[in-house]
Design a protein that fits this description.
heterodimer, A: 516 residues, mainly beta, eight-stranded antiparallel sheet, B: alpha+beta, four-stranded antiparallel sheet, two-stranded antiparallel ribbon, 6 strands
Amino acid sequence: MMNKLIRFGCPFHGMIHSGEIYLPNGGQVPSPQPAGRATTYPDGDPVWELHGSTFLQRMPWAEGGENTEADVDAGRNWTDYAILGGATQRLHGKLISGWIYAGPDGNPWWINAGSLPNFSVNEAFSGELAVRRFGRVGGLSSIHRIPITLEATGQTLTTLVPIRFAMLHDITPDGRQAIFAVYFSYTSGDRAKFGGLHPIGFWLMSLSGTPGVDFHADLSVLRTDRQALGVAGHTQADYENRTTTTYTPGWGPGGYQWHQGSTSGSAWHGTEQRSLSGRIVGMWFDEAETPYPVTMSMIETRFHDQTTSYQATGGPLSGDPGIGIPWSGSDLVRDREYHGYWDSSAGIELSFKGETARISVSQSSYRHEVGRWVIGPSAGNTFTGISTGETERQATLSTPLGSEVINDAQGGAALGQPAYSDLQNATMMSANLFVGITGGSFHCVGVVRHANNFLSLAYAHVPGDGSPTLWALGDGLTPLGVVPGQPQLGAAHRYGSYNPATGQIARGYSQPVCWT
Amino acid sequence: MARQNPTERAEASQARLEGRQNAQSANLNNRTNTIRSNLNARDSRRINELVGDLITLGPDLPPPTLRREERRGPIPAGRGYAERAYQPGGGASEGAAGIASPLVEGADAGLALARTYHPSQILRSSDGLFTWEVAPVATIQFRDANGAAAEFRLAVPSEPDP
């Protein structure tokens, strides 16, 4: 070799959007767009999740390179790291469906295991790692096939969808440790289409040794499905019998007059609460390369109370309209007043190592009815008299976008709801939390899974008339902490990605984005 | 005394004339050397005096420095040329030292690889994920236009420096 090799590699880094890398100098170069995992909803609408997944790789021996003035001008950046992008891990545009392991022999090894075979709950898992030398220019190396098994998968909840699958969730930069998230797919009840992937367990894969020499892959359970499910809470409202004093007209000793009576009935009153804490929705390596859980907590509160009261005055009346004798005396007047109150709120928190993102929606509504029943000379000579009344309805809706008052709101959330089932708790990320104002229209909060390492809390308004769901992304969470929200509503800007090397965030896009 | 013929006289006269010219030339050289010697001695004396004077001006004088040269930038691209064009077999006789262009790799007729290599080197991409194992060329055997053997000997490439 007579020429001097200055350096080589792939110096183009930036956000990938619509098949172009956006370089730091403002230029663009074409690149395959990292893909997500599609979940198809019953109406045929696919939703892409994990499209913005990123996995940082930094080999211990990587030296990077100095950027010359010409490099900066050309948008080149000779980094000592690489980023695998998308749900199927693309490296510099090439699909590798796995990651790179920095072997103790000083060589990079390709671990082709981005997704593992499906398995059933309460059954052992068995799979295989295909391992081969990576990145050596000038020829292929032999493939080492390493069987991996897990007798106890930590998946025992038969109350959930029984088919589970594991996908790469996080890696240490040297690729020596990898976290797999165990998922099941479920879309029912996801009104806002937040996503159909539900992590319900986590595995840790630890690699050691040199393939072909003393390589070893150890697979173990980090969190079981029961642990990932968290702890559910349920406080029911009071189901109580209430008695109301009533007045009905009838003949009495003095003439036609009010007769006092009572009516009673049982109904739900008070405050009802359903909660879930410690639901593990992700596990990320922290700075010390220790797996640390990302937890979701939610609380849903409903309150209802109502009172009905009657007051009766006037009478007794003389006369008998039934035989044509007009009423005489003071009118019989009965006033009825009804107050009904409904409050409901739903909130979600996402936490990682003391950093917490929150979002909530709430509604407070009331109905006020007044009615008057008059029997007597001024209400015609009938036994039924004249009834009049008015009803006032109003609700105040509070979302991440602000508060609004809605007149003529219809009622509120009903009490007496049962505790959430395991399945509901397991799928709680996807919009089972909502408040409803009018029939068919929902105001939901949920979690959008942009990437393996980037979750956003989101508010969605699902109109009752079939028009597109409107979104607003609230605070998000990455391994670096909370990402401030974007309180603006859009039809389809669910896409985002986190750059694990620089900490940069991209989200609010209507098409998939990723970093390289 | 034998009388000289005209030819002999002319030669004798020529000899005397040359002798006289040689003597005059010698005298002239002597005088020139004497004058030059005197001048050199005087110049040396004056230079020494001048250096002495400068030294006595004191140590506060700054040492002489060279003016910083302006960067001229790279040499613009252009077509190279040889100051002297070699022709096969020309300018030197057979068997003389020198290499005649063109040089052709190989020991026998026709082009053929005739190289040896240094121990291989592992070169890595900046992110450490890609490796390139390459053996730098150590020697290349050539034949010149006269069929004479020649050899390049190449050093091991050093670490990359931009």
